[in-house]
Amino acid sequence: MTKASFIVKAIKRYNGVCNSRYIYTRLSMKSILLLFLLFNQLFAFFEDIQTFSASFRQSITDDHNKTIVYSGKILTKRPDMALWIYIAPVEKKIYMQKHTVIVVEPELEQAIVKELGNDLDLFAIFSKAKSLGNGSYLADYMDVSFKIEMEDDTIKSISYKDDFENSVEVIFENQKTNIELKESLFKADIPNDYDVIGD
Questions:
Q1: In angstroms, rounded to a whole number, what is the distance separating the alpha carbons of residues 123 and 121?
Q2: From start to end of the chain, where are the E strands?
Q3: Is-contact 56 169, C-beta < 8 A?
Q4: CA–CA separation, 159 vs 147, rounded Å?
Q5: What CATH code is carried by the domain that includes residue 189?
Q6: Residues 58-114: pLDDT tens digits?
Q7: What is the tally of structural domains in the chain?
Q8: What tens digit of pLDDT does each residue of 4-33 get?
Q9: Could you tell me the pTM of the whole model?
Q10: Which of 31, 36, 94, 132 could form a cystine bridge with 84, CB 3.0-4.6 A?
């Protein structure tokens, strides 16, 4: 990498951090992992579903009633593969295979690798969920209470409060099950010039 390209990259990264500071604080790593794991758990609950895809809209509302809305797509495949693709307002891809999560952030030119450990019980959430009636469930996991809305045996929405006491709601649309999804879709593509941040 030339000195000029290094400087350009550094400036771009600094601007990306400044412009995205509000957005990224609202989408903390713990929030990402909790949502990721919860959805995978719910997916695992339906034994007849081998693959699942949907578009999603994720809204995060703070204590001043300011809301940020993310949109994107989710793909999952048994036994343990998932991909969340955030399209707007920032691009981000979150890959999961077994106990490894990789977050690829093009705006910051970096990838974060997180090992979840082998002691993670993916069935801990839904197995302890309490039915509220009318397709609604309440599940507690890692000190967070999740409200799960089901409709026609399909996950309609997930809502919860994050570490910052923000109200988070994820609404799923255009759900499709048992469609062909190649395993290559779930392998993180990290450009060579990205910084890789591990545990």
A1: 5
A2: 51-61, 67-77, 81-88, 92-97, 100-105, 110-115, 130-133, 136-141, 144-151, 154-161, 167-177, 195-197
A3: no
A4: 5
A5: 2.50.20.10
A6: 999 988 999 999 999 999 888 778 899 999 998 999 998 878 889 999 999 999 998
A7: 1
A8: 443 334 444 433 433 343 444 345 555 555
A9: 0.72
A10: 94
Q: Are 111 and 188 in contact (CB under 8 A)?
A: yes
- Measured CA angle at 43 (ends 178, 159), to 5 deg: 125
| Closest C-alpha to 139, from 123, 156, 154 | 123
pLDDT at 55 over 80: yes
CA distances from 135 to 88, 129, 130, 181 (A): 29, 12, 11, 28
Q: Which residues span the domain enclosing 117?
A: 3-197
198 contacts 113 by C-beta, under 8 angstroms = yes
Q: What is the CA radius of gyration of the chain?
A: 17
Confidence of residue 143 (pLDDT cuts 50, 70, 90): confident
Q: What is residue 178's DSSP assignment? A: S
